[in-house]
Amino acid sequence: MKKFKKAVSLLAAAAMTATMLSACGGSDANQGADTQEAAGAETTESAGGTETSESTGASFKIGAIGPSTGGAAVYGIAVQNGADLAVKEINAAGGINGHQIEYNFQDDECDNEKSVNAYNTLKDWGMQMLVGTTTSGCCIAVAAESANDNLFQLTPSGSSVDILKDNDNVFQVCFTDPNQGVGAAQYIGTNAVAEKVAVIYDSSDVYSSGIYEKFAQEAANQPFEIVSAEAFTADNKTDFSVQLQKAKDAGAELIFLPIYYTEASLILTQANGMGYAPKFFGCDGLDGILNVKNFDTALAEGVMLLTPFAADAEDEATKSFVSAYQEAYGDTPNQFAADAYDAVYILKAALEKSGAAPDESVSDICEKLKGAMVEITVDGLTGEAMSWDSDGAVNKAPKAMEIVNGNYSLIQ
Fold first, then answer.
1. C-alpha span between 359 and 365 (Å, rounded)
2. pTM of the model
C-alpha cells in the first residue's frame, strides 16, 4: 500500500486526535447516515445460511461467506450483520440504479473446504458478486474458484496478500497483512511504547505469519528490540507457557500478538497465571477478544491494537451505524461489521459507476466492476477517501485503539 507509511506516521503524531470517519459513500455514492428498515424485505434461512430477498423486479444477487459458528464466529456474525444492515438501508432508499438487492449469507465455520462448498451453494442460488470471505485462509481457497468463474469478489476482512495474487477479480476492504505489521512496528517505535518486544505468532496461518514477517523487518528501523519471537501452530495452540516464559526471561515489556482473539485470550489468561504483566499489542485479529466465552475481560484492560474502526467514535456516521446495529442485532458492532457494511456500499458505488445491470452475465458484471473500482473513491466507516489499486489492494490507514473500561477506545 503506497500511502500507508505516510498515513501511519501522521497517525502516530497527530492525526489520531481527529474524529472518526465521515458518512459512508464517496464522491461516487453519497449514502445517508440515517438507517432505515428495508421495505418489503423478507429474511429466511436458506441452505444453512441467511437470505434477505426482495420480490419486485430484477435484482442484484449478493452472496456472503464467513464463520457464523465455530471458534471464529465473532467475525462471521459481524460480517453477516454488517452487510445485512447495509442491504436493508440501500433497498429502503430505492436500491442500486432502481434495482433491489437480494442477500444470502453462508456459514463456512472458518474451514477452507466448507468455504468452497458455501461458494458453490451461492452459485447455485444465482450469486452475481461476493462479499467474502471473512477470513484469509478461506478467502484464498474461494478466490481460486471465483477467478475461474470471473465472478467479482470483495472481501471485507480477508487481509492476506495471497488473496490478490493472480486474481484480478478480487478486491479488499481491509488493509493487508504486511502493512499491518509495518504499521504496528512504526506505531510502537514512534510512540516509544516499549524498548524490548516479544512476538508470539501462528506460523501455520498466512495472516499471522505475514504480519510477523513485515513487523520484524520494520522493527530493524525502529528504536526497540525484538528480544523473543516464538511461534505456535494450529495443532498446538492451547498451551503458551513456553512462549510466555521466553518472553519473560528476555525482559520483554510488550508482547506483539499478530493472531486471532481466541488464542490471544488464552495467552493473556496464562500470562496472568504466571504473574507476568507485559503490555499487549495486536492487529485487527484481536477485535473480538471481549466476546470470548468465559474469558475474564479485565485481563484485556490496556490491550492495544490497530484496527480501522472504533464504535465509540463521535462522528455522526459511526454513531448512526452503531445505534442502528445495536437496535437490529442487540450487540455493539466491531470492525468486521463495519468492514462488511462498507463493502456493500463500495459495491453500490462501483455498480453505479459501471452502469452494470442485474440481467447481465456474472462475467460481464465482473469486468465492469473491475474497471469501476480503480476509478471510485469512497468515504466509509473504516476509511476516509478509500481508493483501490488495479491489484485489488485498498489505500487507507488503520487507527490505534486501546481497551479501556471494557470497551475499544480510539487512542487520543
1. 9
2. 0.72
> Of 272, 307, 342, which residue constitutes the final position of a domain?
307
| Structural domain span for residue 189 | 178-307
27 lies in the same domain as 111: yes
Judge whether residue 119 has pLDDT over 70: yes
Residues composing the chain: 412
The pLDDT, as a whole number, for residue 167 is 94
> At residue 402, does pLDDT exceed 50?
yes
**Identity of the amino acid at 259:** I
Question: Can you spell out the DSSP letters for 22-59?
Answer: --S--TT----SS--PPTT-EEEEETTEEEEE--SS-E
- The pLDDT value recorded for residue 52 is 62
Q: Tell me the CA distances in angstroms from 299 to 27, 151, 263, 326, one per residue in order.
A: 43, 44, 14, 25
What is the torsional sign of CA 193, 311, 206, 393?
negative
Please count the structural domains in the chain. Answer: 2
Facing residues of 42 across strands?
53
C-alpha 119/C-alpha 107 separation (Å) is: 10
CA angle centred on 358, ends 354 and 360, rounded to 5°: 80
Whether the bond into 269 is cis, omega within 30 of 0: no
Q: Record the cell numbers describing residue 247, joined without a space.
A: 518472553
